[in-house]
Amino acid sequence: MNPRVQSLGQVTEFWLDPIGPFREETIQALQVSTALSRRQIEMALGNCFEELTEEKLRHFLTSSPAVSGGDSGTRRTTLHILPSNVFTAWVHGAVIALLLGHRCLLKPSAREPVFARAWQKSLEEIDPVLAEQDAVVSWDEKLLQESHAVVAYGSDETLQQIRSQALPGARFAGYGHKLSVGIIFQEALEESSTDALLDRARRDAEPFRLQGCLSPQILYVEDPQFNRWPELEIVVDVMPKIKPFTQWADVLRELGKFTPYLSCVGYAGSSERGAFLERELRGSLVSRVCPLGEMQRPPLSWPNSGIDLANLLHSHP
């Protein structure tokens, strides 16, 4: 079993502990750097780290042969160029890199430099030896020439520029502009309690004020009279656009226009709706279909933008 799992699992426990060391000061600093509320920040931390428990890391290992084998003895450098809008988006990629035995360089956004340093500090608290493989760095074009792999977040134009400057032959994972939607089918309106459905929509829409690629920009509702959702408007800072529908074909046609930028589709409805959407959206490059309320907490194995990051980083020349 990969020896780093226990340490990374303990880092997760560190961030899930509501009274953990320097968690409070980090949340306060994040309120400034992200302009998010305390509640939104705590939701984001929960969504991120509840998918990185030791148990889930071990499960990931059993399903990912690239990671389960650990490193090959050759220390490789992976440069992560972090986003400014979703402060936890990069953590899964950094964890995968460390599980593979890579040296992991984190270049924070100038707009949000707080969380990368806080995460590095927590790693030092738990496992100083493993922390030596992780470092927070300032921008230097030389890093692109020294890194065997680059994992970057940003606009499509920025990603193209970074890729052109990277080391020839380096592996590259670029996460550009994406959007996500939610679909509420008629049976969910009929069978679910209003409060339960409202809470599920709030959990997806609230954390990043619709700025993240997993935030539902649109909620399609199978009810021609459902033009507004006042109860949701009250509990979120930024409201998704509500679009009522009667014919599924109309929704499918509109979703097709979002290809290749559609990332996640969350749904509320019967248990068969997940398989139905997988079939209907085949070919649209959607990387994730999940129940409404789970959009902001993808598993570590999620192929964001269709990229299997573990295999990509493992397959260095």
Topology at a glance:
Elements: H1 4-16, H2 23-34, H3 38-49, H4 54-63, H5 65-68, E1 77-81, H6 91-99, E2 103-107, H7 114-126, H8 128-131, E3 134-136, H9 141-146, E4 149-153, H10 156-165, E5 171-175, E6 179-184, H11 186-191, H12 194-205, E7 216-221, H13 230-235, E8 241-244, H14 248-256, E9 262-268, H15 273-280, E10 288-291, H16 309-314
Parallel strand pairs: 1-2, 1-4, 2-3, 4-5, 6-7, 6-9, 7-8, 9-10
The CATH superfamily of the largest domain is known as: Aldehyde Dehydrogenase, Chain A, domain 1
Mean pLDDT equals: 93
The total of helices stands at 16
What is the domain total for the residues? 2
User: How much beta, percentage-wise?
Assistant: 15-25%
Rg calc: 20 Å
Report the count of strand segments.
10
Summarize the structure.
The protein is of the alpha/beta class and 317 residues long.
Task: Tell me what you see in this structure.
This protein is an alpha/beta fold. The chain has 16 helices and ten strands. It has helices at residues 4-16, 23-34, 38-49, 54-63, 65-68, 91-99, 114-126, 128-131, 141-146, 156-165, 186-191, 194-205, 230-235, 248-256, 273-280, 309-314; strands at 77-81, 103-107, 134-136, 149-153, 171-175, 179-184, 216-221, 241-244, 262-268, 288-291. The protein has a five-stranded parallel beta sheet with strand order 3-2-1-4-5, with helices on both faces. Strands 8-7-6-9-10 form a five-stranded parallel beta sheet, sandwiched between helices. α1 (4-16) packs across α4 and α1 (4-16) packs across α7 (114-126). The longest helix is centred in the first third of the chain and has 13 residues, at 4-16. The two termini are 24 Å apart.
